[in-house]
Design goal:
- The structure holds two protein chains of two kinds.
- Chain A has two domains: about 35 residues; about 220 residues, MetI-like (MetI-like fold).
- Chain A contains eleven helices and no strands.
- Chain B folds into two domains: about 170 residues, P-loop containing nucleotide triphosphate hydrolases (Rossmann fold); about 70 residues, no CATH class.
- Chain B has nine helices and eight strands.
- Classes of the chains: A mainly alpha, B alpha/beta.
- The interface between A and B is medium-sized, with 25 and 35 residues.
Chain lengths: ~260, ~270
């Protein structure tokens, strides 16, 4: 009962912090009299958001679907690469420098290349968010596989299990918490990728709307775009987080597992 | 640990008859566990060979899960192994952990999808009940104590009715009461199913209680110094393990091991 009370209190405090943040922003703008061309008040942003919703909605859907497409592709490719290099020491050593180099490239720099290859629009946005979400998944899955305790594998090895059996029954379940940790990172990064590409070369999407709005000095609309991105990002994070707690409940009790 | 150039075993040769219960004792680091790992196929010998059921360990078809085994007349032996640590997979329930061998080893493997909810689950439950874990099948490993996990680990080693059972100090990390209780259970299971057992331990009472034959090993590089038959009749009881004959046997073994250590450690 006490525990529940602590949890509600924590939620209440988070909500208060959120409301307090916007309140402080509103009051700060009013007191300092800063122009809404520089920093619009939250109430102005809310009004714009409400009025322009019919206009913004298709763009939000575009950005969301682009992000999800890129994210799903990135995760699938990331899992395949991660499993490949995680289950073989040689592959790990060979491929790792390549991956690090690949991931060090600023993703803004690849957008123009994708545009040259596929033309402006949805395809480069999907590809950018895909490219950006691959790396965390690869690293985490590979680490999860590579750090599997040999004793756990021995359990199956003495039974004469094939490599594939060990992968399915020990290594992959063992790597699952690592995968989900990376999904939470990848989903937020995927948004970055999409918006990045949309601002550079697209005629749809929230990134594109914000680009045009800032060109017209419609700063409240730019902020409305930011709010939409934040809300979508939080929602997808929450979804990954929920799936994670459902799938890998055993790993949340890490300490006790070691104790036993 | 066993890599590099350390010679773990030297000129070791032993034979175990089918259905026998052999215990391997010796000072720590003498290569007892190495022998077990060689038999289990977890290590490859740098020279020499290990034969289990007339097949060389590690060769194709030497394990019951190999369906492609070149038919040499006999079916390959089913092997069960219990480690010193329970090594339960934390994402599975206790029952699912016990059922792992049924998922891997033929002939159970081909029926696994069909029987995992019925016959195989019942078989796991029956074994768990036998070691005193009735009703714990749905628990997760972290919800059980070390002793309970070790019992479950024994069940996992036995569930596929192995013809060869390898025990690597499975009772080593337990308190004395739990350990002695598990000795009795182990003996019961052995009398009922008669698998061939190779038990590695450094508990002399344990090996005298459980084994038909005790092999004493020397310090590194390990060699077998003595091969002794345990004469006590079965089923052995806890009272017997406090009898004078029993104490004499344990003492003799103890002295043999003390002797085995001298050249290396107590030289002037």
């Amino acid at each position: 009962m006490n525990n529940l009370g602590a949890k509600t209190r924590q939620r209440l405090l988070s909500a208060m912090a959120l409301v307090g943040f916007f309140l402080l922003w509103e009051i700060g703008c009013l007191v300092s009299g800063v122009s809404d061309l520089i920093l619009p008040r939250p109430s102005q942003v809310a009004v714009v958001l409400w009025q322009k919703m019919p206009l913004l909605w298709p763009h939000a859907v575009q950005t969301l679907s682009t992000t999800l497409a890129g994210f799903s592709l990135g995760v699938m490719i990331g899992i395949v690469i991660g499993v490949t290099i995680g289950s073989s020491k040689t592959a790990y050593d060979v491929a790792y420098p390549l991956l690090v180099g690949f991931s060090s490239i600023p993703k803004v720099a690849v957008v123009p290349i994708f545009v040259v290859w596929f033309g402006a629009g949805t395809v480069p946005a999907v590809l950018t968010s895909m490219v950006i979400s691959i790396f965390p998944v690869v690293v985490n899955v590979a680490t999860g596989l590579a750090t599997t305790e040999p004793e756990l594998e021995d359990v199956l090895k003495v039974l004469g299990a094939k490599k594939r059996d060990i992968l399915w029954n020990v290594s992959l379940p063992r790597a699952l918490p690592y995968l989900f940790a990376s999904l939470k990172i990848a989903i937020t990064l995927a948004f970055v990728g999409t918006v990045l590409s949309e601002t550079v070369a697209a005629n749809k999407g929230i990134g594109n709307v914000m680009m045009i709005a800032s060109g017209n000095f419609d700063v409240p609309l730019v902020f409305a775009g930011l709010v939409i991105l934040a809300v979508m990002g939080v929602m997808l994070y929450a979804v990954s987080s929920f799936i994670e707690s459902r799938m890998t409940g055993w790993a949340q009790r890490g300490n006790e597992v070691v104790m036993a | 640990m066993y890599g590099g150039n350390t010679l773990a075993l030297d000129q070791t040769s032993m034979r175990i008859a089918q259905g026998d219960f052999v215990s391997l004792v010796g000072p720590s680091g003498c290569g007892k566990s190495t022998i077990l790992k060689l038999v289990a196929g977890l290590l490859k010998p740098s020279s020499g060979a290990v034969l289990v059921g007339q097949r060389e360990v590690g060769s194709p078809g030497s394990r019951a899960s190999d369906t492609t085994g070149s038919g040499a007349g006999r079916d390959p032996l089913r092997v069960g192994l219990a480690f010193q640590n329970p090594t339960m997979l934390p994402w599975l329930t206790i029952r699912e952990n016990v059922m792992i061998p049924l998922k891997i080893v033929e002939p159970f493997r081909r029926d696994y999808a069909r029987k995992k909810k019925g016959e195989f689950a019942d078989r796991a439950e029956a074994l768990l009940a036998q070691v005193g874990l009735k009703g714990f099948g749905d628990k997760r490993p972290w919800q059980l104590s070390g002793g309970m996990l070790q019992r479950a680990s024994l069940c996992r080693a036995l569930v596929h009715e192995p013809q060869l059972l390898l025990l690597d100090e499975p009772f080593g990390a337990l308190d004395q009461f739990t350990r002695e209780e598990l000795w009795a259970i182990m003996q019961e299971l052995w009398i009922a199913k008669r698998p061939t057992v190779l038990l590695v331990t450094h508990d002399l009472r344990e090996s005298a209680y459980l084994a038909n034959r005790i092999c004493v090993m020397s310090a590194r590089p390990g060699r077998i110094l003595e091969d002794r038959v345990v004469p006590f009749e079965r089923p052995r009881t806890l009272e017997m393990s406090y009898s004078p004959e029993f104490a004499t046997l344990v003492q003799k073994l103890r002295m043999r091991i003390a002797h085995a250590r001298t050249p290396e450690e107590i030289q002037p």
